[in-house]
Amino acid sequence: MKKVLAWTVLLVLVLVIVIPILVIGGFHGEPRQGGSAKMAKGDHIIIKVYFHEQQKIVEMKLEDYLKGVVAAEMPAEFELEALKAQAVAARTYAVKNMTAFGGSGLAEQPGADVSTDYKQSQAWANEETLKKRWGSNYTKFWNKISKAVEETSGEVATYNGEFIQAVYHSTSGERTASAKEVWGFDYPYLQSIPCTWDQKSPRYYDKKEFSFAQVEQLLGPETQVVAAMQNNSSGAMAILNTTESGRVGQIRIGSKVLSGAEVREKLDLRSNNFNVELKDNKIVVNTIGYGHGVGLCQYGANGMAKEGMDYRQIITKYYTGVALKNINAY
């Protein structure tokens, strides 16, 4: 009878104490590889990153990934509030693409959410790269970047409850551009707005000179630039119209009409906010701004921060009508 009683007590202890400890312990620590981000919270949200140079997919904590993005995309010398705005934009951009949050992932690499190739997603820098770039300032700058990410942890920009397309660029040059004028599709939060805070950007103004032959080679022989210029044809080079933000819509060069975006790409200009002039038998292209001009202007964000505005004011300025929410609410 005593043996039966002893076994009964032992069984009760196992059921009441040991098993609950094992069950609870199973939900602590790092989320499993490939687990849904919706099942994790805060620092434990996992993003699948395609490292294009190594050609492999690596699973990382979202917030750790973002530190590498902010460090690569924005100068660490910028004001903390500007870096925070960049962190929110970068987080929103990433989450918008994450399959765990309903995104489509990286089209070029199935199984990945984002890429470290800035042409496909956002730029990203590792510790080795940053140590070379920052030198003796590495610890100071890394702590600053980390603070910007950590103090905005989980914050994303939304419109009507949906994650926005949080695109950004270096320098707008007087006005940002709308998504519609650049890419042809409209988003209510990606509209053209005045931007005067980026005028101290080192990328604000640029000038390039081309020979007639160079322009014809770059834009195509059908432009007949050389012949048109040698004949002093009237209107051989003229901007025909501009967009809402003042960027070149269409331009006639030689015998062909091209879009401002085409000319920017083929002549490798900093933006399609440019004018052209003839000088000493050369075509001179003067450019204002750097990048597509849509969404957050990075140098503008820094200018706003210098004037005392915080990251929330910066985000809501460049993304019209958005609200900041925390991804843990999704």
UniProtKB/TrEMBL annotation:
InterPro entries, alphabetized: Bact_Sporulation_Assoc (IPR051922), SpoIID/LytB (IPR013486), SpoIID/LytB_N (IPR013693), Spore_II_D_firmicutes (IPR014225)
Keyword Membrane: yes
Membrane-spanning segments: 6-29
The keyword Translocase is assigned to this record: no
Keywords (A to Z) from UniProt: Membrane, Transmembrane, Transmembrane helix
GO cellular component: outer membrane-bounded periplasmic space
Taxonomy, superkingdom: Bacteria
Listed GO biological process terms: sporulation resulting in formation of a cellular spore
The Sporulation stage II protein D amidase enhancer LytB N-terminal domain, residue ranges: 52-159
Pfam family, one: SpoIID
Xref: PANTHER family: AMIDASE ENHANCER, N-ACETYLMURAMOYL-L-ALANINE AMIDASE-RELATED
Protein name stated in the entry: Stage II sporulation protein D
Native source species: Pelosinus fermentans B4
Upper classification of the organism: Bacteria, Bacillati, Bacillota, Negativicutes, Selenomonadales
